[in-house]
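Section 3.1: Structural characterization of target chains.
Under the original work plan, the team committed to producing a structural model for every single-chain target entering the pipeline before any wet-lab resources were allocated. The record below documents one such target. The sequence was received from the expression subgroup and is listed exactly as submitted; it comprises 477 residues.
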Amino acid sequence: MKRRWVMIISLCSFFLGASGVYACFTWFFPIGGVNDAKVQLEGENPLPNLEKVSEAYQLIQKLYVEEVDEKNLIQGAIQGMVGTLKDPYSVYMDEATAEKFDESLDSSFDGIGAQIAIQDGKLVIISPIKNSPAEKAGLKAKDQIIKIEGESVEGLDLYQASKRIRGKKGTVVKLEIIRSGLPKPMTIEITRDEVPLLTVFSEVKESSGEKIGYIEITSFARDTAKDFSTELKHLEEQDIAGLIIDVRGNPGGMLTSVEGILLELATGAKPYIQIEERSGKKSTYFSELKEEKPYPITVLIDEGSASASEILAAALQEINGYSLIGKRTFGKGTVQQALPLEGGGNIKLTMAKWLTPDGNWIHGKGIAPTIDVRQPAYYYSHALQLEEPLVLDMNNENVKIAQELLQGLGYGPGRTDGYFDKQTENAVRAFQSMEKLPITGQVNEETAVKLDEKIEELVQNEKNDLQLQVALKTILQ
């Protein structure tokens, strides 16, 4: 293994916890470096055009109609320079934000439990954390946040957005989102709560009379690699014939954690990751593993698999040839370094790209599965949020959602275009009868809640998880 120090690299976006940006995970690489950069800067002459900045500062301080805080002016100037990069992952952090950035990842935190990023200038959800308030409230990967508490997010960077979403356990935040498939925005209210960060879950499943190990990794936290190794050992003691690694909805995390897992699974035939600097110089990192596991491995991926999850998936596919099953991943392929400023705070700057073993840059593109499998339609259904009961002859988005839910449950509304016709009413009556609700043929709040509950039961039943079922059927072929 090559040495790993000097440069602190961040590979994921931001968890939305009580303190805003709760954790951005790191790895150390021998490229660039804070000290080297500092020496170089000290030897350079100030740019002549900085005189304009100084002049503008003095004019504002002396002549602006109101008194201006000196610190705010300086921070604004720095933010302006960083903003011209048009890179959502390069940001200026003041002292308070930088302190939160440097906090170690704990076993839990208060917040909504989601991770955000900026893509094409839009604030989007990478993925909600498993069993988090965000997941329970119905946030999904690729949801675009347009308002927080009724205020537009336009012009906000990731840190500013996270500050607006943060809050104490038990408080509520209201997000207005745009979701693919919906013609207009929807509002989701989320009650902040403690978000546990247990990241590794395992069990033995059966397929064709064989035992198949299954390990779900929900994020790559500090102890994830150690927990993965422990759980894998327990599975191997049960004589498994194959292994499924599930990183669907996993937004990434500590690269040291994914590295620890790859050193146990990926051979050294190719580098498990390559880091490319601005100059084009590449640093490669290899596993010392000589032989693969004596059983096949498959990785489950989806739109919420990002960053470290993509590193894992790409390495296992391009080095070992293991199958990737599911949908194309999120696409986060840059690395950042937090550079401290002498006056306090720091600039987190994108300084390199990470490449797959074969040298592919997946940023903005994601990783395509080797077996493309879409989940049943009800996996992508939206929660009903009623302002009034849905009745005969209504025609709106909520009717369309109710029809999709009824169809997913097998009640045959006959159409899913948003028009509440007689057949839709009959389907509602049948559902109400089966669930022992008042039979009105109208979708009121009670019926809407029960529809959501029954859909959630379908989603939680692994027999309906087509991606998992395909993995179980094909892993031994």
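The CA atoms of residues 403 and 416 lie 5 Å apart.
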